Amino acid sequence: MTLAEFIAALDLLAAEAPARIAAAADLDAWTEVRNALVGRQSGRLTDIMSGLGALPKEDRREAGQRANGAKAAIDDALEVRRAALAAAAPASGPTIDPTLPARARWKGAVHPVSLVIDEVVEIFRELGFTIALGPEAEHAWYNFGALNFPDDHPAMDLHDTLYLGEDQVLRTHTSPVQVRTLQQYPPPVRVLAPGNVYRRDFFDPSHAPMFAQIEGLVVDEGVSFADLKATLAHFARRFFGAGTKTRFRPSYFPFTEPSAEMDVQCGVCSGAGCSVCKQSGWVEILGSGMVHPAVLEAAGLDSERYTGWAFGMGPARTAISRHGIPDIRILYDSDVRFLDQFTR
User: Fold this and answer.
1) Residue 221 resides in a domain
2) Are 252 and 335 in a shared domain?
3) How many CA atoms does the CB half-sphere of 147 hold within 13 Å?
4) End-to-end CA distance of the chain
5) Number of structural domains, the chain?
6) What is the pLDDT of residue 221?
7) Residue pLDDT, tens place only, 194-244
8) CB count, 10 Å around CB of 167?
């Protein structure tokens, strides 16, 4: 190929290109024209430039310049046509409907058990209670001995308690905080002790091997069972509603005497009987009683001078009763669809 033949081929391509580009009716046709004219694999310009190496050395500079000029002119014409076709083309893809509601985003929520704990703490804070905490890995004496458990009590067996060593356990209740608080602070004492406790229980609809508990303790001179009943009845009315009915039933705990369990009228059936209250019309919410003199003496107090009362409640069971949750295991699932119901 001579330089003249090379230039003639470029001129012919430049003359045909405008008509072919203008004939492209849509973007797909435009792509085909571009590939046919300047495509790197099989474009007309690529074929012409493949003969550049066969030209005499002195003609290659001029031939290259002419080829670059032709390519620039064709590229400009292609871009003008592409812009025109893109402007005329209908919108592709799904259209946006501004009337559709926005997709909700999970922002996090407070767990229903935490909500119960926070509410209980706030109610008792108004009554002058402060917060006391203790270790979850507890010495067996604080967990059992100081709380008047006899040496042969079944709660001390391996099938009920998780032992970390000979004298170390995962606490089975928050009651050890009673003794630790009384050892550290002289009466009067009014404390609330929330925290996790551990039992060798099967994980079933009503039991869990780890759960939250709230302990309450009052110790002073002249404290009576009437103070206990009045305070806990006030709490129930604040927590469940002003018209809430309560009752106390005799019970037994090694660290209180006398002892009582407190029930509230079922809020689901209003006392008529349902599956939540097991057809009784009442729901147990806590155990309570007067602090046993042996517990006061284990903490170094004079049981002839001081008296006190204590209670323990499970906020998980309270949350289940309040919200009608059928299975305690739901509280441990971390299902955001369930937790989203309890945003503050």
Assistant:
1) yes
2) yes
3) 26
4) 84
5) 2
6) 95
7) 999 999 888 887 778 899 999 999 999 999 999 999 999 999 999 888 888
8) 12
